[in-house]
Amino acid sequence: MVAAILIPISGTIGIAAFLVAGILALQYFDLPWWAARYAQHYPDFLAGIVAFWARDYLQRFGWLLPMLLGAFAFWYMISCVGSTGFPIVWFLLIIGFVNLNITTAFGRFGALLGDASYSIYLLHGSVYAVFINFLPLERMPVYSPEFVRFTALGIVCLTSVASWMFFERPMARIGHRLAKRADPAATTPLVVGQ
Q1: Predicted TM-score (pTM) of this structure
Q2: 16 contacts: CB under 8 Å, gap ≥ 6
Q3: Regions of the chain where pLDDT drops below 50
Q4: What is the C-alpha to C-alpha distance for residues 179 and 190, in angstroms, rounded to an integer?
């Protein structure tokens, strides 16, 4: 909601200023619990904005180096530091994904998952709930949770891509046609999968 108001008025500078103000307020003031819960995640969102600003300057590093540095930073934060420092991880991973060459098979796969990301967000909880509630995980061998986790992740990706291809993309096309019919002079391009 804040982004929907601030971005049209002041762009990414406005939302970054809001996030920095929230981070500072969290550090120096006793915020209500609900505001503190939101503000705890502001550094992560700020990392995304800074990555957006820096993307053109960091293209020369390709995708692999930022991804490897992000994976190392993630490992380091989890094993040595604890739960702080994740904005660095998100910054590096976002730069890696932005620099991904979508003409390669890996890049096309990444772009496809990017197209289906909203469906991944919507469907992952349901898929995981089915796995957790209907599989007898406590009676499975000790190595089984990894197999179950990666199987569930694969099913999340497959169902999300199918949802994007057969629901989201057609609905976006219909919405685009309706918008063009309502205002033929509109120049809003259809971004999703044309």
Answers
A1: 0.64
A2: 46, 49, 50
A3: 192-194
A4: 11
Taking CA atoms, 93 is separated from 16, 106, 115, in Å, by 19, 15, 17
Contacts of range 111-114, beta carbons closer than 8 Å, 24 or more positions apart: 112/161, 113/157, 113/160, 113/161
Tell me the C-alpha distance between 109 and 112, whole Å. 5
Q: Map out the domains of the chain as residue ranges.
A: 1-40, 52-100, 102-194
Integer Cα distance of 130 and 159 in angstroms = 14
Q: Which pair of structure tokens corresponds to residue 116?
A: 């289906």
Q: Residue 149 and residue 140: Cα distance in Å, rounded? A: 13
Per the CB < 8 A criterion, the answer to whether 87 and 74 are in contact is no
- 118 vs 171: CA distance, rounded Å: 14
Q: Which residues contact 90 (CB under 8 A, 6 or more apart)?
A: 44, 47, 48, 51, 70
